[in-house]
Amino acid sequence: MVTGLHPPVVAGVAGGVGTTTVAVALRGHDAGRGVDTRTDVVVCRCTGDSLRCAAALADRFGPGPRPVLAVTADGAVPTRGPLHARLRMIEPQFAALVVLPRVGRWRELTDPLTEAAGLFAQPVEELPRSLRAYVMALRRLASAVAATGRLRQDDPRPRRSDAPIHQHEPPPVPARGRVRPGRGVRIVPPTERVDADVPRRSARLAEPRRPDGPSPIAALNGARP
């Protein structure tokens, strides 16, 4: 557990590499597979493909303190052979590299994360023998992360918990085009419109009376011949 500093951001190169276990044990933030410039601990497995993915992600961090690489071993920690050579090759690309040994008892527990969360709560010599090597490696991992300086309170890098959340703003209402009056139509301003409370009179159609009889539209006006 890292105290007095920002909680470390832990992210894995893929699923199933032990990211959640490391995040719970360090009391950090589990970022899943979201490795970015805010990641403090990158987790991968001790396999050729997983180590290759971690090496490819190392280029994302650029200058400045780099994160620590936590390698989850599927068996015994390799001390020779191709995997050992790859570990030596990838180590300079990170601030530090810590191999976490496999804990076989966690495959038998219903909730191994509960045990992982309390690994720093008691002395190493009081833990089961199968956990001691893992806890000692976990302590080296915590010390390496703190030594990078990435967890300082004055670190200008945005933390995941402090990152602003951008709310979805409604799309702007498109400006209406200028209304063009049709031919013979007059647009009346609001001040010139007739009030709805004012009684309106029906319009009467007028037409010059013909000399030989009544107007042909006189019936529409209610006039009698």
TrEMBL record:
Q: Where is this region: Disordered?
A: 148-225
Q: Where is the composition biased (Basic and acidic residues)?
A: 151-169, 192-212
Q: What is this protein called?
A: Uncharacterized protein
Lineage of the species this protein comes from: Bacteria, Bacillati, Actinomycetota, Actinomycetes, Pseudonocardiales
